[in-house]
Design a protein that fits this description.
Length: 236
């Protein structure tokens, strides 16, 4: 593999980025690499013993049995479940140092693991920090870190539009869309025609390969996640 990191983004919040991040990490591990995960910006965090804790980081740490601390996995945490920049502004927090803190944390985790899966926040155009009045988004972060993207999408009415809107975001090479994962974060009815037809339509119209279709998992224990991870095809 030429790259040693992937960036997981989604067509929306709640599409299953965290779950797919775990599946990708399990798959990379099954391919023989030591894989960690990184969630540089997390909003909607909970107070625990006087500190903010990211539920995503906590779940990933436990599910993947990671030795990395929650601070290492998720250094920049906000309480309100909002785009990070908006949550920061409402909390009176400066974002000035965020790009350096996020990058330093990434480099640190990269020095500890052979491969890192980075989970973004929301989708590509979510505002994360500002620089001299200019708004910086998840897209800017990916361009700066030059990472291949895995885009997680729903299988539902609206997916075609959301997916192509995300894929139309102009990245700066070498950042690129490497793969698409369709994920059912809610049960899909067998007669849901939009769900049955949208992945195929998208794959015909897009050059981005589909890396996997993850069904709704009734149980997401370690064995079920390992099984689901086997069906993901990483093409780097
Ligand atoms: N394939 C699946 N099967 C069962 N439950 C799922 C599946 N995918 C996601 N979920 C559940 O749906 C919810 C949202 O998923 P997840 O947290 O991974 O989304 P996200 O895109 O990371 O959200 P956020 O934008 O908040 O980070 C979680 O409760 C998760 O356990
Ligand atoms: Mg998440």
């Amino acid at each position: 593999m030429t790259q040693n990191a992937l960036f997981v983004t989604g067509t929306d919040t709640g599409v299953g980025k965290t779950l797919v991040t775990a599946l990708l990490a399990l798959k990379i591990r099954a391919m023989g690499f030591d894989c960690g995960v990184y969630k540089p910006f997390a909003s909607g965090c909970d107070w625990e013993n006087g500190a903010l804790v990211s539920p995503d980081a906590q779940w990933l740490q436990k599910t993947l049995d990671l030795g990395d601390s929650l601070d290492e996995i998720s250094p920049l945490r906000l309480e309100e479940p909002l785009a990070p920049l908006i949550a920061a502004r409402r909390a009176g927090i400066s974002t000035q140092d965020w790009p350096e803190i996020a990058r330093a944390g990434f480099d640190h985790l990269r020095s500890k693991h052979e491969f890192i899966i980075v989970e973004g926040v929301g989708g590509l155009l979510v505002p994360v920090w500002d620089e001299n009045e200019a708004i910086r988004t998840v897209e800017d972060l990916i361009n700066a870190w030059q990472l291949p993207i895995v885009l997680v999408a729903r299988r539902a009415l609206g997916t075609i539009n959301h997916t192509f809107l995300s894929l139309s975001v102009p990245l700066k090479a070498p950042a690129n869309f490497a793969g698409l994962v369709f994920n059912d974060s809610a049960p899909v009815a067998p007669d849901d025609i939009a769900a049955q037809t949208s992945p195929e339509f998208i794959s015909y119209q897009s050059a981005v390969p589909i890396w996997g279709q993850v069904p709704f998992l009734d149980c997401n224990d370690a064995a079920a996640l390992r099984r689901a991870a086997q069906s993901i095809e990483i093409e780097l």
